[in-house]
Amino acid sequence: MTPQERALLISEFTVAIKEMPVTLSDDEQRWVRMAIKKEAQSIAFRTAIIEKSFLGVITMMGAGVLYVVADFFKNHGFK
To answer: Would you tell me which of 17, 19, 28, 57 could form a disulfide with 24, CB atoms 3.0–4.6 Å apart?
Structure first.
């Protein structure tokens, strides 16, 4: 392919792309908005689950440490 043929091909592609319709119909726009909203809700839900799981694990670890400390004091004569 010569440089002139390549330039001609690129210009034809450019013209074809500019002539393509860019707008979506109302139904397509509504569907895209709903898909974006659903994805945002899904991300927020996953984030909330991760945060609550992490806090639950930290709470259980704290309770476990307190239980071990209390058991230690109980077994060594402190009541």
So the answer is: 28
